[in-house]
């Protein structure tokens, strides 16, 4: 490899993807500057200290799927890492079941006449698709193609609409293939169909998580992993600037020449040879100077994200439930986590912390945390026998402005228009959840960061003589 000590890579965004890209580059001697607008590294996969306790911005734990990344993170975290067995549940049909849902749970949860009806719908959907192949035009049709109309109406329609604030017929079919976990309860039936020649060759949902696996956490919550990555980057000579809001991406002759950012009211400009962006791709487009063509700007405006509002609760109970987290289909919240069950240290003693996750819109009542919303959340927690209003000692509201990419109907050409512009800039990459407008989990996002870093390193390899 050529000497890279004089090469400078600027990375925009300090979530798992950006941090790991910086980790890979700094480890081989590349000059790296990572800019993160928040004062806490980690993006959505971190925690924030409020009072005496840490509150996660959602339920985030490290999986072991990517062995190379996992071993590297374990080496960085050392004794801070706490292994914990996956214990996720879903509240469904008035009972609790393992998540992802199992076939036997489906049998228990649905009365026999309805089970026969739903199964018949599934069979019909599979035979129809085999006899008369058709391409779904939206998420509603994709779900019906996968599971049949009865199961779609029973299990998916209302929850999807409530979660996203968008009816499934207004979501792209791509959403099902990239975000919606596959209902493993149905897989058993579909496998049986496959044995008689009815194969599922078209739309496929995302493979479900393993039912038994080891996750990794820490006593201070999700913040330990990004903090360990920052330490590793800095030990290798990289620079991580927190509280740095990217304001301009300076372009000369179609290349990124420098990045401007604002920190503590001061505007700073740094030159770069390469740029990896993990910030939301519409933000990247808007910050380019000179501006991209109007059609790119217009396309970027069409790409939207679903915000999240996380209610972190300090509860005067030693424990609220016996799982790591539980999914709910008909409450104000869609998931509640109890990180103490994974090893989080909580103060004072005999108290616990709940992470109550909601989707929202910026500026609405959930985002603002109004008294009315809190009252509804507290009432639903009490209805689920998790805790009472009187048990709640503190409420801390956390936000994720760009929590989830929205795969709205017809988003694909807009995304392609923007990504074509990115690809035309030879020293720019846009990747990760927000930068790639994708749904990677934490270790997959880090792998995307590693891939972006390797792409740069391959450019700088000495040509073979």
TrEMBL record:
Q: Which InterPro entries match?
A: Amino_oxidase (IPR002937), FAD/NAD-bd_sf (IPR036188)
Q: Where is the Amine oxidase domain?
A: 17-314
What the entry lists under Pfam families is as follows: Amino_oxidase
Q: Which GO terms describe its cellular component?
A: cytosol
Please indicate which superkingdom the organism of origin belongs to: Bacteria
Q: Which GO terms describe its molecular function?
A: flavin adenine dinucleotide binding; oxidoreductase activity; UDP-galactopyranose mutase activity
PANTHER family reported for this sequence:
UDP-GALACTOPYRANOSE MUTASE (PTHR21197:SF0)
Q: Which protein is depicted?
A: FAD-dependent oxidoreductase
Q: What is the lineage of its organism?
A: Bacteria, Pseudomonadati, Verrucomicrobiota, Verrucomicrobiia, Verrucomicrobiales
């Amino acid at each position: 490899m050529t000497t890279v000590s004089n090469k400078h890579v600027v990375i925009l965004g300090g979530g798992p993807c950006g941090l790991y890209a910086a980790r890979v580059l700094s480890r081989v001697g590349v000059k790296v500057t990572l800019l993160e607008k928040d004062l806490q590294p980690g993006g959505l996969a971190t925690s924030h200290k409020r009072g005496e306790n840490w509150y996660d911005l959602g339920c985030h734990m490290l999986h072991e799927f990517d062995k190379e990344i996992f071993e590297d993170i374990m080496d960085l975290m050392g004794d801070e890492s706490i292994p914990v067995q996956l214990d996720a549940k879903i509240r469904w049909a008035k009972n609790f079941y393992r998540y992802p849902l199992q076939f036997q749970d489906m049998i228990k949860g649905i009365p026999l006449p309805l089970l026969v009806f739903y199964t018949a719908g599934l069979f019909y959907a599979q035979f129809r698709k085999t006899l008369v192949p058709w391409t779904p035009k939206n998420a509603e049709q994709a779900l019906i193609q996968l599971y049949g109309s009865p199961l779609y109406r029973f299990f998916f329609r209302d929850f999807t609409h409530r979660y996203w604030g968008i009816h499934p017929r207004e979501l792209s079919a791509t959403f099902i293939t990239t975000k919606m976990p596959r209902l493993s309860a149905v897989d058993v039936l579909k496998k049986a169909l496959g044995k008689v020649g009815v194969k599922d060759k078209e739309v496929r949902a995302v493979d479900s998580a393993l039912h038994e696996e080891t996750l990794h956490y820490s006593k201070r919550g999700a913040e330990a992993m990004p903090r360990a990555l920052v330490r590793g980057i800095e030990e290798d000579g990289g620079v991580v600037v927190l509280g740095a809001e990217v304001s301009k991406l300076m372009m000369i002759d179609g290349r990124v020449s420098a990045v401007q950012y604002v920190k503590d009211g001061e505007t700073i400009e740094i030159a770069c040879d390469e740029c990896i962006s993990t910030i939301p791709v519409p933000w990247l487009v808007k910050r380019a100077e000179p501006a991209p063509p109007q059609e790119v700007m217009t396309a970027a405006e069409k790409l939207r994200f679903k915000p999240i509002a996380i209610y972190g609760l300090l509860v005067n109970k030693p424990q609220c439930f016996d799982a790591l987290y539980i999914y709910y289909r008909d409450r104000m919240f869609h998931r509640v986590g109890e990180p103490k069950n994974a090893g989080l240290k909580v103060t004072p003693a005999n108290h616990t912390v709940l992470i109550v996750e909601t989707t929202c819109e910026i500026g609405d009542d959930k985002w603002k945390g109004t008294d009315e919303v809190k009252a509804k959340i507290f009432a639903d927690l009490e209805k689920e026998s998790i805790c009472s209003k009187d048990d709640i000692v503190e409420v801390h509201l956390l936000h994720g402005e760009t929590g989830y990419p929205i795969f709205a109907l017809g988003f694909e050409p807009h995304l392609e228009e923007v990504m074509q512009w990115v690809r035309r800039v030879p020293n720019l990459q846009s990747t990760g959840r927000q930068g790639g407008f994708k749904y990677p989990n934490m270790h997959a996002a880090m792998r995307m960061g590693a891939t972006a870093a390797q792409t740069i390193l391959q450019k700088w390899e000495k040509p073979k003589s």
